[in-house]
Please model this.
Amino acid sequence: MHAGQSPDPATGSRAVPIYQTTSYVFRDTEHAASLFNMERAGHVYSRISNPTVAVLEERIAALEGGVGAIATASGQAALHLAVATLMGAGDHIVASTALYGGSHNLLGYTLKRFGIETTFVTPRDLAAWKKAIRPNTRLLFGETLGNPGLDVLDIPSVAAIAHEAKVPLLVDATFTTPYLLKPFEHGADLLYHSATKFLGGHGVAIAGVLVDSGRFDWEVSGKFATLTAPYEGFHGMDFEEESGTRAFLLRARREGLRDFGACMAPMTAFQILQGVETLHLRMPRHVESTRKVVSFLSSHSGVQKVIYPELPDHPDHQLAKKLLPLGCGAVFSFEIKGGRPAGKKFIESLRVFSHLANVGDAKSLVIHPATTTHYRMSDEDLKRAGITAGTVRLSIGLEDVQDLIDDLDRALKASQK
Amino acid sequence: MFAYSAGRAFDKAKPTMVFVHGAGLDHSWFALQSRYFAYHGWNVLAFDLPGHGRSGGSPISSVRGMAEWICKEVAAEKFSIVGHSMGSLIALECAARVPARVERIAMIAVAYPMKVGPAFLDAAKADSYDAFDMETIWGHAAQVPLGGNPSPGMWMYGDTQARLERLAPGVLYNDLKACNDYVLEGEIGCPALLILGKRDVMTPPRSAKSIQEKIPDAKTVLVDFSGHSLMAEAPDATLDALIDFFRT
Model:
């Protein structure tokens, strides 16, 4: 509720002011030079930092238990910023197969063009994680709850594998939020959110945030020249030497935001902050309603299978009980009987659920991954990600849950005719 | 041994400024201030004491021993010292022991005697995380967890805890005990500056009174909204006080 903001000293404003400005007046020429050379803290240009955005960054860092954060234009921008800060051409990533389609595209296709290769492994196959690591591996990456099979990432085990290889573990924590899971407490080193989803919760702003635990020792690892060798692009600065625990975020801000420029707008930060203020109220309601909908669908004649880690038949059920005692979130999948035609009819028969490509909204959402979020993936990749032609993904919102159940019941009946 | 110099080569023609960190911390606690002086006419040596940060070895068990180590490691014949908390005691001790070498001392968040509460000492001795929490919470002003870090996007509590978690077992206790046991012998003859946070609960301004009495000509700067971690909580006010002191 409060972290990141003391009431505005200039006006006493209780709400976070929106500093809608591109730049900040220097006190004098020496002050300007000192800000540019990192001898003084402060804001220079809103692509690099902005007071409203900084409140969101500090608040999310506090919620996650990190040393700090960088807000970005989107969740994808946060992932790209993490990768670009840590590595370059010739380096390698080991990633879970159970990823958001956009992340899969970035790692599997786009980064490859820039010389960064990724090996994808089934997230619960710990031996595969280990086997995929090469001398040039610089990052292990997965989602706290995989998309759309709800694979629970065994963060402690995968983190241990990463640390043995002297590389960090990055997790996409979008589906869990810090209310349900704090990845740093389980060994993850870096995390990011698509803040567009549950952190905002209102579906009005595209946003991302990248958080560093500050626990990974880049110097001891010896594998991250971007953080431990002098950088010509910033007065020969050795970021680890300069700032220790803050090295990753310093480079990400001073190079990544400066050069790639995928920053967050102050209005967006304000909008996401409005959502974060009610995160602890919304998440329990999301989970409570999801459990009721899962229960309803599990016994419905039109449903072949429900995929949710709280169900005993989910392969990660025991792990979910350990890592996610407060609930497994509000996004889950089910297999509709009748495959693709039934799925199409089902979606077109819904009245309350909105058919769109998003999750984590106050409103309930539905999508057919094989034809939308994951449509670029080959059949083989789809299978590896646990998706079939009949997979339907739901994101349970904050409406009256009986309205949701009635809507699903009506659409399922229509789909089976 | 590691000392940060902002990547600048040592220049015999320039004066030398030594930075010494507080209990359980390292050179980067002075990142902004040390970088400023390195780019404004000074040779800068921001040390990691043995067993801290990038310096190997075992921690030194007394302030006197730490002061001897600093004086040995600094090659320059004359130098000034900026110390924070425990580092300010080291600055005092260096000034008392080798007055011919130490030109000026600036003590940030200093108290004398620097007595450490038994609960804090016991927790540190047991290597309990409670000691990290105590250093984190008491090491900042009460408003800090409510936010407003001058360094955009950083969370001071998280940063302090991450630093402390990197310490080898026993290092924090070593440092706290060294502070607790320290007794100043000798006089301070060089110009001295005290920078104190009005909201410091670990070394509140009143606990610097005996230093002010021992060094009657010492200048004191009180910083309004800062706690113990002045370099992070009030980086500009701290730097401005240092600039003013070392320019005159």
User: Anything to note?
Assistant: The longest strand of chain A covers residues 137-143. Chain A touches chain B through 50 residues (CB under 8 Å). Chain A has a mean pLDDT of 94. Residues 279-298 of chain A form the longest helix (20 residues).
